[in-house]
Design goal:
Blueprint lengths: L5 H5 L3 H21 L3 H9 L2 H12 L4 H15 L5 H10 L4 H24 L9
Amino acid sequence: MNRLPWDKILSVTPLDLGKLFLSAFIILLVNKVQLVNDRLSALLIALPLTSLLAMVWMHHAGQSSTRLANHAEGTFWFVLPTLPMFLVFPWLLRHGWGFWAALAANCVMTVALFWLTVIVLRRFGIDLMPS
């Protein structure tokens, strides 16, 4: 993996602050909706709002169609290993696991599934983690 340009990553513009506010607002809104309707909040959080916002911001920044396509495709593949978490986590909670233990177990499982996905997809010519 190439050396990351930390100076670009850590510089903050007024537009970045707007993006931060909008993203935080979406999370806050979903959290507030959860107080009255947990299914509606689940539906809202399942919508790929942050991915769509990120692609709009990438387009606004002048990113190429190739980069946008790569981003969307990568997002698809990276979502797959996270899906079991949404079934295993509630199962663990309902079977006596504490919140933090269930969360930790799900993090370990998700990381393992992520790397398994990377390895399997490489065999089919899809490289999620190019060097």
